[in-house]
Amino acid sequence: MRHQWLGYGGAAVLLLAVSIIASLSVGSSGISFIDVWGILLHQLPWLRDQPVSWSEGEMAIVTQVRLSRVLLAVLVGACLALAGSGFQGVLRNPLADPYTLGVASGSSVGAAALILFGYQAAVGIWTIPIVAFLTGIATLLVVFWLARSSAGMQLETLILSGVIIQAFLGAFVSFMVSLSNSVVNQILFWLMGSLAMKSWANVYMLIPFLIIGVIVLIAYAQHLNVFLLGEGQAAHLGIRVERTKLIVLACSTLLTAAAVSVAGVIGFVGLVVPHVIRLIVGPDYRLLIPLSAFGGGIFVLWADTLARMALSPKEIPLGVVTALIGAPFFAYLLHRRKRLEGGG
Fold first, then answer.
1. How far apart are CA 21 and CA 196, in angstroms?
2. What secondary structure letter does DSSP report for 283?
3. Three-class secondary structure of residue 51 per DSSP
């Protein structure tokens, strides 16, 4: 286990560092690679007195816009991938993620409603995450209620319920857009997902949620490993099944709400990343959970880099990029599951 940690963890840190360096080095402003890293190194206390060759505007673009956006992409991706691994662990299927279960859309409804009615600053910057969490939890409960029957909860029914609720809530947000004249763009942001126009305040706000999520999910990683044997077996081995499910689902929903409150609905990250990590390292959640955080950060960082550079200076919504990648992957997983169940 220790060797696996060192090997996979070291590779993940290296890949994340390379991704951050590459993403920081490119942009639509035309600042050269040398100037970008000269500006960043100039922020070190012992280099601040050195003469510079760049303008104040270029320095602001690199330090206030590009650097904060890159770090925010890493944090958002880590939150969504962690949430996906939590949902998949509790529900014991690889098709569960905040997007397919409708939790992301539910969180976006709360955020959009606050914007529409002008209450987004009621208790400061925490207003939107708190309301997004409450509406996300409410959505998850509705999806479970729809999917549950006397025969238990079938996977196909659960996914179908999530898709139905997601479609309904998407229509509800569109309805709010139609009611608004002054904040249309702000609400549309939650429909398509984007990291544009964000600041260091959003980075600082997301960090506590990610720390809490990582700590809680890693603490329950061994319980999720036992869940792979079935809930009955887990109960026989001394696991408090219902309490574990409640804590992991609440933590996963909180991570989703935090990410949605700053970046809108960015679909399929929690589906694609944990599944790919599982194919590489196996089903052990002691590895899967922390590596999913790294993988999610890398995935969203490259997706956001593609979103802002593909049609530069015009920017593609980040949620569109992740959906273009994730939807075919979701179809592949469904097809693979159907083939395995059919024995073909």
1. 19
2. S
3. coil
- Helices 103-117/241-263 angle, 10° precision: 50
Residue 311's CB is within 10 A of a number of other CB atoms, namely: 11
| Inter-residue contact 128 to 261 (CB < 8 Å) | yes
Two structure tokens written together for 334: 């469904």
- 274 prior amide bond cis, ω within 30: no
Burial 122-158 (b: 16+ CB within 10 A, else e): eeeeebbbbbbbebbbbbbebbbebbeeeeeeeeebb
pLDDT tens sequence across 13-37? 999 999 999 999 988 878 888 888 8
Cα–Cα distance, 91 to 55 (Å, whole number): 53
Residue 150: φ, ψ to 5°: -65, -25
DSSP structure string for 110-170: HHHHHHHHT-TTEEEETHHHHHHHHHHHHHHHHHHHHHEETTEE-HHHHHHHHHHHHHHHH
Q: For the segment 230-246, what is each residue's pLDDT rounded down to a tens digit? A: 888 888 888 888 889 88
Sign of the alpha-carbon dihedral angle for 95, 96, 97, 101: positive
- The whole-model pTM stands at 0.89
Tell me the C-alpha to C-alpha distance, in Å, between residue 343 and each of 155, 171, 283, 331, 340: 18, 39, 22, 18, 5
